[in-house]
Amino acid sequence: MKAFPGNRFEGMELRDYFAAKAMEIVVKQLERNYTIELGGIEGSTDAWRWALDDTEEIADMSYALADAMMEARKESS
What we know:
The protein is mainly α. It has helices at about 15-35, 55-75.
């Protein structure tokens, strides 16, 4: 299923669109969690910074949320 059906530039799949939207929330939550674990204050200079190890976790979590959204769509129709 395409994210933008009927548009001549249909583009990405709906699941990918949902994952992209979820990614912002995932990153913000990880930043918040890591900052708290480090004893820092959100938005301060000692807040969490990207690490290469985090990329797989971010992608996995984003697609898990996207899959949940796809299931919710099926159940509501």
